[in-house]
User: Fold this.
Amino acid sequence: MMAKKTLILSLVVSSFALLFCQALFAASKLNVVATTTTLANIASEIGQDKIRVGSIASPKQNIHHYAPTPKDVLKVKRADVLIHEGLDLEAWREPLLAAAGNMRFLGEGKDSIDVSLGVPLLEIPTSLSRSEGDIHAFGNPHYIGDPENAKIIALNIAEGLAKVDPENADFFRGNATVFNKKMDAKIKDWEARMAGFQGAPVVTYHRSWSYFVKRFNLSVIGEVEPKPGIPPTAKHLAGLIQKIRDKKAKVIIKEPFEETRTPKKIADETGVQVVTLSQSVGEPKESKDYISLMEQNISSLEAALKHEGGK
Amino acid sequence: MRRHLWIYSLLLSFLCLGPIRTVLADPSGGPNLVQEMADIKRMVAAMESNMEVLKSTVRAQNEIIERQNYRIEVFEKKQTSLPIQAAAMPQTPPPAKTLMQGGFNPDIGVVGTTQGKLTQNKADVDGNNTIALKELEVNFAGAVDPYSRLDATLALNDNLEDQNIDIEEAYYTRWGLPLGFTTQLGKFRAMIGKENLMHGHQLQTADYPLVIQNFFGEEGLSSSGARLKNDIPNPWDLPLELTGEILRGNNGESFSGISRRPIFNTHLKSFFEPSQDTNLELGWTTLFGDENPPRTILVDDGTGVMVEEEYTPAEGQDRYGVKVFGGDATFNWFLPEGKRVMSQSEIYFQNRTDRVYDNNAPWGFYSLVEYRFSPKFSTGARFDYLNPLDVAGRQGTTSISPYFIFWQSEFADVKLQYSHTVYAGGEKTDNAAFFVVDFMIGAHKHVVQ
Assistant:
């Protein structure tokens, strides 16, 4: 009986000791939280062993409609630095910050990094009306789809981390340069592989691939959604099917969280290929980092565009 | 000539071997040199990065200039609206634009709910066999200063007999208190379980569960008061949020009508992620409040005749005689392609005297399951059981409410619901059909619960 008590006591004591050690270890690093897995990945490339990084939105869910959980509130509450995509991509960001009440990110928000700074934005509306669907007031926020923008993101993260931790400023900036050099090499390769498909007509489910198609000189002839964020209607689909036939589009690009039924229906009628691309590291599971994610996107799209078909 | 070449070669070899020999001779020299080289490389990389930052800044500045020029051009041409795609030119995030558009105005949103109801109930009361604008909510929200914000919801009702404006919520949030506490002051929906926190249009169903309606009011308990909340540190790194509230007493069906005797509420919640695609939130609520039974007294009717009159004394006989306990559980299962299964249950029971209501141990629960099977549609059902406040004994009201939701967009939805209710005692039943349309404009951001 005594031995059992001693065992339990020692287990409890060692758990707390481990917890204490973990807290000490964690305290020596900057606690960074990013709104998406992709930003968390780029941040880990920049911060490496000087930061501890976590993410909020699940890569499997639509970033616009993500509902933050109590665990996310706790993450933000404990974070030293918040990295976000800015604009109005994460519509839930403001309520999340209000729920967490971390003064580092409220008011002046001096320790939050908006990675959209300096990104050349597309599709900025000149008038705002919900009759145009779920449009974004500051422009299309899906800029992470262009690998060139990942370089700007890396620099923004490096500068943001350097402000919070000036002692390691050179370390962060140096890592950003290394990351950007890797990106330069990969972009060259991806552009070369996509060069054969200049101006190829494609259809996207949501207007989330504008930056990607611009980078690789593809031409979007329409979207499955009649307007951003509005579910497809029969009338719109009939028009889109006709357009696909007229323009001889070969591919419908959708994201993993978007339904397959409608694109498949269009594919059955027109012979286009439905290809699932992602902007979130970790979805699919094989995409461990931004480069492998884009590599996978390019390979999938390349294969689909090469596919001979059509009705 | 050949001899000269030999001499040059020897000299070169000697010069080249010199540093290598030094490194080899000094064991600490090698690593130092490697370290220095690494440092130099890092410095060069940092300088390159600085160059990139400078380039990026210049590029951003140029983009701002281009954008301003473009705006001037548009302004000069007196163009008021351009197609969205036409504005596709290099941009930087325009903070000035928001400032110009909104100034210091708060975010404003309007949410309307129109409800049609068909019921077997023959009573000619508001809501039976009719269609009406049930509620029009006007939301205001914005930062007060760097430390606080204000959220307010005014509800305009189109009731047949008393059209009115209610302050549904209006509370001031102050962050950054010692030890990480956050406080909220004003009027807010009490932190009771899950559905009591939601506004009508946020509900999956057309109405609040029977136990919420019976214990806290038709639209739940919203009360003036003060709230303090924080996370409890724990060795398991679990979210463990504790909220304490002091609420004005004259609220909710279960409590007395005396406002100077507050209701005390505490809510504890935790959250688990059993897998990458599932999560579970558990909560516990405890409320203490007064029960002030009305008394019958004799009063002069003005003609010298003493008549009986009922009144509720300010000094209650049962200080904190009403105790409400409740548990809530919400389970989410995220499926591929945006599909989702959600299950939510809440149970409440009371310990009270039977001087105001006949039942001294009322209790009830509801259980709801919903399946969102496409971007446009979801379906579900709610089961209710209620042993109500005013029915003594173990008789309970049961109700089953299947429903269907059409999500026209993120800003408009249509709900259809059928409810079959068997009232306590089993003698009376009711069948009702609901048709609800929710629509919203402007800014609308739901509070993270």
